[in-house]
Structure formats: structure tokens, C-alpha cells
Design goal:
Blueprint lengths: L9 H19 L1 E6 L14 E8 L16 E5 L10 E4 L3 E7 L6 E5 L2 E7 L11 E2 L18 E12 L19 E6 L12 E4 L4 E10 L2 E8 L3
Antiparallel strand pairs: 1-2, 1-4, 2-3, 3-6, 4-5, 5-6, 7-9, 7-11, 8-12, 9-10, 10-13, 11-12, 12-13
Length: 233
Amino acid sequence: MPPINPGVCQTAIQRHVARGYGQAAKRLGSVAQQFRPSYLTMPCEPDPYALVMAAFNDDPEFAFRRPVQWGKPVAYGLFDTTDVAPGDVFVLPDEGTFFVTRFEPFRPALAILSNATVTLSGAPGAGSGPPAGGISCPLAGYQPGYGGATAGTVVLATGWPAWIGEPGRGYVPQTGTPGALPAAALLMRLPVMPGFSPTAYMTVATQAGQAYTITGVASSQYGHECLMVTQQV
């Protein structure tokens, strides 16, 4: 076994890799606002955590042959990764809003291109505390929402970037009401949120006026995936 060179370590290599990404971003990217949310209200206001040069692409080789595809929001971030963490939000005027889900040494950060800004409502105190992980049952005790948040609910988080799209094949939403028409099912992805994890039965409202009810949640250190149904009127 060859001797280990004490002058070379993972931290030193990562520092050079991070700076290399930063140098490439200066030539290929544009100025981005980096936010590191610390509150549940308006996480991308008022002032950014930092201003960085950045670009995002669906190819980890950054060939820039195509934009991030509709329905496939996963992207790779090209920027100096010296100071980046899951949950960071990058706002680029010409590319959109991305939130980081995972970062590992020597590799670009993994991110999601958002297509909505959402507000979550629920019972007072719901979702507070660290995410427990795992999956909530999407059917047990479910009661569909009608026409928005019900009495006794409060706004829990507002102004959060999210991706909303179709869930995987095979998921059939259930309303729990005999004779009710099946509600449209959607999947929502959210970044890591400080001291908060969405839970089933919360309601979601988008900036465009759509309303949904969460039926199941999978949370991890990388963010949250929520199954939702359209609120029936």
C-alpha cells in the first residue's frame, strides 16, 4: 500500500474543486441571489445571504445542450460550493428559482427548479419541530377539503418555492367519501424548512390561486415530498 501523503486531504481537494466550479460559473453563469432561510415567512426576503455567479443545467457535465425539462425539475448547480447547504435557495433572473436538496464533496450541488410559490396552512403548531422522516399514510382518516382552509387553521409557512407536478404512475387518490369524484393527485417538492415539516391534512395555496390538501409526506434531510389532491368545491 503506498504511503498516504499528509499534505493532501479531502478538505484541501474540495476547496480547489469548489473554487474551480466558481471560476467556471464566472464565465458561464449569471449573478444569482443565494438565500439561506431562517424563518417560515417569506424565506427569500428581504436580503440575500450572498450574491454569487451561478448556472444550472440538467446535465452534471454542464454541456448546456438543453434547458431543464418540463416535469423533470432536477438540476445541477454550477457555482462556488465553498458555502452551500441543503435548503439554500438560488434566484436567477433568467433561469428561475432553484432550491438545493443535496451536496457532497467533489460534485456539483443537486437542486430542484421550482414552478410555484406556496403557502401552507394547518392547525396552530402543526409541523413544528424537526422532521421525523418516514411516510405518512395517505388514506387513514383523510377528509377532503372544500373551498380552502377550514375553520381553526392558521398560516404556518408562506412564500416558499416549490415544484408541483404529476406523481408516479399507479397512485390513485382516494377521497374517503362514497360516490365522490376522484380528485386530481399531484406531487409537491419542498426544500428543507427551518424547524418545520409538512404533515398530512395541511392545505397548500399557490400564488396562482390553486388550492390542495396534503394527503401524505415523505421528509428527509434533503427536503420534503408531499402527495396532494385538488380541493373540491
